[in-house]
Amino acid sequence: MKTSDPASVLWQATAPPAPPTPALEGECEADVCVVGGGFTGLSTALHLAEAGARVVVLEAEDPGFGASGRNHGQVVPMLSRYGPEETVARFGPEEGERFNRFTAGAAKLVFELIERLGIECDARPVGWLLPVDSPARDAMVRARAEAWAARGMPVRYLERDETEAVTGSRYWQGALHHAWGGNIQPLAYARGLAKAAIEAGAAVHARSPATALERTGGRWRVAAPSGAVTAEQVVLATNGYTGGLWPALRRAVVPFRLFLAATAPQGGNVRRQILPGDVSVSDSRTLLWAFRWDREGRMVMGGDIVLPWRARGRAGTVARRRLQAAFPELGEAAFEFVWDGKVAMTVDRLPRAMELGPGVWTALGYNGRGVALATAMGRLLAGRCLEGLKADDPVPAALRRPHPVPSNRLAVPVARAMLLRYRRQDARAARSRPA
């Protein structure tokens, strides 16, 4: 079985059934056509439908097929690279602080939606941990914790002993803890969003890839193999799976192929000793190590593979090595599931929310923070479709335009080169760890 096969994904095996999403047949009209059935597209459709708009979603596979149903399931209330002070320094106090509030509130939005809509997705708002992987990064993590706490966020820095108590490991030096984070079953969440959007009045069509987009008579026509949608506005919510529908959009992100692995269910003693409070862990490496439990006691972790050949075996080897370093009590863990998905990275590691043309909107480039950010961006895009771009939009003006990569043909080699560069950065930082 290949890691790209949906059957290799843990979440496929444990999610509730998907709602009926028949393929589009024939011509139809809508206020908004949403292309893409992941978190961004489904959140957009849900919020539009709840506001009374006519919405049609076109998904090439099934809702949650891409990164939305393949990710680690961590709900993270922070950007991957920027802390709140760096955001303010880059965008100024007004735009920067609006963006800080938007980023922090994205995680709360996820759990609020899950509760309001009754989505069954093993939601656990138990907090999120950013452990320090080396003394070289301790000052950065401490400063980030202090900056968020100064803004009224439920964030604090844990010293080494408390970090050990929370993680069950002496591997990390300390950690930032954010109480608004947590875990979900991501495919179940995507399917729950789809069900809620349908119940609110949206039409969600699976196996209906958008094949062409053209402007005609002041409206947009989105073609699919067996039909088409004519709409006033279009939302392109394809992120790391962006194709050629809007050619320039492909150059806005670099697709990284990341891997995840899940052990067999672990025994009670190990389960109680390691991550005893079920907190999610994503450490401070550039290529982070991520760990969490699923509801059945599987340890789920993320990884990276630079070269794709023999990826399944190599991904398992990397995952096992990292587990042994962080949690030696797991021993020689066997993996039940190993899978991969595309993560959309941007050159500056910041997301984008853009108007590509008259009434054509998109948001993408979540850089590994997609559960929370994509949900919040979906609500934001719905608001833009309904009311236009407001002066107090939470996304800074600089992030409403692309920062393109040089060439589509260079995207994969660039991604691999970036992975190698990040590995070297992490190796240099690791040399500062005490013996």
Describe the structure.
The protein has 435 residues and is α/β, with parallel strands linked by helices. 34% of the residues lie in helices and 23% in strands. It has eleven helices and 18 strands. Strands 1, 2, 8, 9, 10, 11, 17 and 18 form an eight-stranded mixed sheet that branches. Strands 5-6-4-13-14-15-12-16 form an eight-stranded mixed sheet, sandwiched between helices. It has a two-stranded antiparallel sheet with strand order 3-7. A hairpin with a 5-residue loop joins strand 14 and strand 15. Helix 2 (39-50) runs parallel beside helix 7 (186-200) and helix 2 (39-50) packs parallel to helix 10. The longest helix is centred in the first third of the chain and has 25 residues, at 93-117. The chain is globular and about 65 Å long. The two termini are 40 Å apart. The mean pLDDT is 90.
Q: What would you report as the Rg, rounded to the nearest angstrom?
A: 21 Å
Shape label: globular
Low-confidence stretches: none
Helix content: 25-40%
N-to-C terminal Cα separation, in Å? 40 Å
Tell me the structural class. Answer: alpha/beta
**Average pLDDT reading:** 90
How many beta-strand elements? 18
